[in-house]
């Protein structure tokens, strides 16, 4: 898809039909007007940026699935706008289907803002039912961005080693949540290749609650928390 002016990504999933909404909702909220605020910190707890995502529209797609439009706005550590983005959310066959670029932190996605963006590859699939020991499918995406037909940036994203680690209770400024804990390895390549281990906690009907990012040596680089709803 080609996008203009603002960076547009496809993201988290919805249902195959309205009648199937309850069984397909899974680890996300598909209620119009639902908001989630995430705050990102470095390894020492210093504020990096804040992102607010709102479900603005929920509707049936032509293929019978249910889709939602999400709007995201992010600010930097000084409170200045850094990103305005829109995401299409879809669920099919009891899977939440998340376009892989959405799994990047806001600062990485900010680099595509204002460009024409073409995204190809696999979605980040998240089953609506998750159990400890479960292995999840790999995902891959390629992002090509530029202006006026001129390619300025190519990024490849590869997600492997996806595992469900178990259940944990997580407390954040937004509340206390019963979560499922998932880990994966994310490889990104532009001019250089970077490898990180990502650990995430999801709550039923809420979505992402906590995220930790580690470098290839296992050292914490940063984390994100659900800080408002």
Task: Give short descriptive properties of this protein.
229 residues; mainly beta; YmcC-like fold
Number of domains: 1
Can you tell me the residue ranges where pLDDT is under 50 for at least 5 consecutive residues?
A: 1-23
Radius of gyration: 17 Å
Order of helices and strands: EHEEEEEHEEEEEEEE
> What fraction of residues sit in β-strands?
over 45%
Number of strands: 14
Task: Provide the helix percentage.
Answer: under 10%
Derived structural class: mainly beta
Describe the structure in your own words.
Strands 1, 2, 3, 4, 5, 6, 7, 8, 9, 10, 11, 12, 13 and 14 form a 14-stranded mixed sheet that branches. The chain contains two helices and 14 strands; from the N terminus they run βαβββββαββββββββ. It has helices at about 20-25, 105-110, and strands at about 5-10, 35-40, 45-60, 65-75, 80-90, 95-100, 115-120, 125, 140-145, 150-170, 175-190, 195-205, 205-215, 220-229. Helix content is about 5%, strand content about 60%. The longest helix is centred in the middle third of the chain and has 5 residues, at about 105-110.
Outline the secondary-structure elements.
Blueprint lengths: L6 E5 L9 H4 L10 E8 L4 E14 L5 E11 L4 E12 L2 E5 L6 H5 L5 E6 L1 E5 L11 E9 L2 E23 L2 E15 L3 E11 L3 E8 L5 E9 L1
Parallel strand pairs: 1-5
Antiparallel strand pairs: 2-3, 2-14, 3-4, 4-5, 5-6, 6-8, 7-9, 9-10, 10-11, 11-12, 12-13, 13-14
């Amino acid at each position: 898809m080609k996008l203009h002016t603002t960076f547009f990504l496809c993201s988290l999933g919805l249902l195959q039909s309205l009648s199937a909404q309850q069984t397909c909702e899974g680890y996300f909220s598909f209620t119009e007007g639902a908001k989630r605020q995430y705050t990102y910190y470095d390894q020492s707890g210093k504020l990096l940026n804040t992102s607010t995502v709102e479900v603005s529209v929920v509707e049936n797609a032509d293929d019978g699935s249910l889709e939602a439009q999400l709007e995201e706005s992010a600010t930097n550590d000084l409170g200045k706008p850094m990103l305005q983005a829109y995401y299409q959310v879809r669920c099919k066959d009891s899977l939440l289907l998340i376009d892989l670029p959405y799994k990047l932190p806001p600062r990485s996605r900010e680099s595509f803002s204002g460009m024409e963006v073409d995204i190809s590859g696999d979605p980040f699939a998240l089953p609506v039912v998750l159990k400890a020991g479960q292995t999840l499918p790999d995902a891959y995406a390629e992002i090509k961005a530029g202006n006026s037909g001129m390619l300025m940036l190519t990024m490849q994203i590869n997600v492997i080693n996806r595992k469900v680690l178990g259940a944990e209770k997580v407390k954040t400024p937004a509340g206390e949540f019963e979560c499922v804990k998932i880990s994966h390895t994310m490889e990104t390549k532009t001019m250089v290749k970077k490898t990180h281990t990502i650990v995430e906690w999801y709550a039923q009907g809420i979505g992402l609650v906590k995220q930790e990012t580690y470098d290839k040596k296992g050292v914490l680089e940063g984390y994100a928390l659900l800080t408002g709803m």
